[in-house]
Inverse folding.
């Protein structure tokens, strides 16, 4: 069943690309169907994140235990971010995609809205304060996941602290979570249609001609993401004594959906469900994956490191190794919370360019090909979330080997298994 679903999504990608290329107007007219699919998934995300985190953190009201989980998660996120920034820095200096490029004849995209969002990224202190919601209903309405996660953890710990008195609320949360996972299963039936529509609209709108002048940058970003997915991640999995390619097969269909929709949120419910079924504890899954949407964007990290130095190369601005390290340091800080603003990666790139004195107009040119880069960097986040979940589960000694054994023994259909509470 899962393999057939992945095949359907792959065929939908191909057909959508053909429609967009040969019938661009028809392709663009399909955009509302694709947007409707994304909205269907996003309407489920906040209820699932809130209920699963509340249930996972309510165990014994142990704030120290939750603190340990949070600290280990952040340490891992920062560690992998640093490694990927290093890979991007190495590639962009070896291949030099911006060297000799004449940007004057390339079309620039309007980035006025991005400029308005830059302060949200640059002001790191404000971002930290905003994690604490002044109005939880407003935070949920805006899908501010970091604020929702913060409130859900406190709610769950408080529920655990009062013991049996919280049982009615916990049973309600369990019911809502089960309903949301079932609803996800129903919505995902329409995924091939949504994928076809989004791919047709993207190819129809941007075409192939736009990509040619920036082909070298696109090639370097895709090469870097391939190195991360098929080089760095397998090495990490080897240290974890996990077969990476079995992990990758496990989420192959979700990888394709993330690629076509450019949204990790569209796969969040199914990804959480699978990671719990295959050995990671409910507590770890419900914290690591939702928080990773904002704090563990591996694909965006690679993209940012390449594009920031690309701007310097394209405008002939010499940057020694020390200056490049400063840029990477700025990216470590500004890249957190990418999902909190629209066009998050572009906003972070613009913020970083402004902070280190790189020409902001170059970001407007990159924005013209951003959809092509966005598909790959979003897809890269999928195996990144899986590995983060396994790393933290093993670190917390909450990884169930018998669950993982399913991955190695079940190579046929993998049905949705509603979580048991």
């Amino acid at each position: 069943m899962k393999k057939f679903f992945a095949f359907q999504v792959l065929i939908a990608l191909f057909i959508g690309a053909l429609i967009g290329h040969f019938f661009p107007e028809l392709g663009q007219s399909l955009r509302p169907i694709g947007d409707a699919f994304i909205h269907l998934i996003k309407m489920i995300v906040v209820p699932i994140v809130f209920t699963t985190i509340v249930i996972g953190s309510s165990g014994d009201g142990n704030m120290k235990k939750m603190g340990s989980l949070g600290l280990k998660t952040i340490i891992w996120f920062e560690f992998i971010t640093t490694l990927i920034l290093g890979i991007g820095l190495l590639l962009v200096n070896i291949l030099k995609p911006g060297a000799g490029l004449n940007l004057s004849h390339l079309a620039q995209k309007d980035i006025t809205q991005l400029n308005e969002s830059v302060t949200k990224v640059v002001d790191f202190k404000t971002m930290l304060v905003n994690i604490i919601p002044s109005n939880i209903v407003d935070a949920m309405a805006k899908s501010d996941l970091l604020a929702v996660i913060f409130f859900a953890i406190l709610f769950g710990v408080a529920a655990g602290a009062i013991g049996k008195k919280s049982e009615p609320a916990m049973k309600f949360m369990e019911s809502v979570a089960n309903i949301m996972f079932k609803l996800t299963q129903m919505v995902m039936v329409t995924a091939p249609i949504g994928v076809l529509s989004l791919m047709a609209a993207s190819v129809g709108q941007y075409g192939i001609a736009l990509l040619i002048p920036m082909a070298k940058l696109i090639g370097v970003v895709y090469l870097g993401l391939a190195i991360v997915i098929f080089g760095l991640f397998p090495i990490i999995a080897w240290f974890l004594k996990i077969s990476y390619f079995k992990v990758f097969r496990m989420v192959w269909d979700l990888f394709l959906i993330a690629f076509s929709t450019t949204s990790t949120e569209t796969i969040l419910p199914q990804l959480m469900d699978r990671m719990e079924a295959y050995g990671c504890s409910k507590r770890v899954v419900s914290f690591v994956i939702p928080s990773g949407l904002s704090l563990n964007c591996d694909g965006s990290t690679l993209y940012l490191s390449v594009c920031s130095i690309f701007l310097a190369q394209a405008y002939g601005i010499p940057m020694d190794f020390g200056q490049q390290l400063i840029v990477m340091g700025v990216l470590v800080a500004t890249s957190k919370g990418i999902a909190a603003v629209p066009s998050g990666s572009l906003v972070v790139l613009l913020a970083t360019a402004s902070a280190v004195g790189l020409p902001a107009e170059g970001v407007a040119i990159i924005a013209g090909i951003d959809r092509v880069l966005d598909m790959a960097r979003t897809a890269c986040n999928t195996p990144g979330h899986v590995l983060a979940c396994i790393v933290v589960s093993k670190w917390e000694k909450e990884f169930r080997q018998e669950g993982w054994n399913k991955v190695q023994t079940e190579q046929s259909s993998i049905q949705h298994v509603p979580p048991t509470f």
About this structure: Residues 140 and 148 are 6 Å apart (CA to CA). Residues 63-95 form the longest helix (33 residues). The chain has 21 helices and no strands.
